[in-house]
């Protein structure tokens, strides 16, 4: 490092000023546990308030839709990987397992609910993603529009998923 700096720096006084920074070592004064204990002890002595927790907040449409958007994204990702990996590992192809499910003769209500459980996360995540794209462009940030588009996304996702499940 010093050779590199000597080659780059024609001014050796700059190098002399950087030398202590480069060669100094940081020693750990205390362990993480001791540091954490010191932090809480200091906060207690200074009578600092605790940070609020999620349990004191009342649920809002915006926060619930945000959490649901993240949850559906994770669920869809896990589901896609699970189906893809299982198709790679299982001995038969997808058409075989689709015929197997059809042969079980589920009733129409159970089949509709199963399709709805698959279609709704996809519809919600897609529509809420479009809502987020509008936010990225700077539209829809006032509270009235946030709530209106939130309810719109929720309604359209349920209606769209129900339509897809009815096919």
Task: Describe how the helices and strands are arranged.
Blueprint: H1 2-8, H2 12-23, H3 32-45, H4 61-89, H5 94-103, H6 108-136, H7 143-166
Helix pairs in contact: 4-6, 6-7
Explain how this protein is built.
This protein has 167 residues and is mainly α. Helices cover 75% and strands 0% of the residues. Helix 6 packs antiparallel against helix 7. The radius of gyration is 28 Å and the shape is extended. The termini are far apart.
Distance between the termini: 67 Å
Largest sheet: none
Question: What structural class should be given to the helix and strand makeup?
Answer: mainly alpha
Number of helices: 7
Order of helices and strands: HHHHHHH
Give the beta-strand count. Answer: 0
Given the C-alpha coordinates, what overall shape results? extended
Q: Determine Rg (CA atoms, Å).
A: 28 Å
Name the average pLDDT. Answer: 86
Beta-strand residue percentage:
under 5%
What low-confidence regions span 5 or more consecutive residues with pLDDT below 50?
none
* Estimated helix fraction: over 70%
TL;DR of this structure?
It is built from seven helices and no strands.
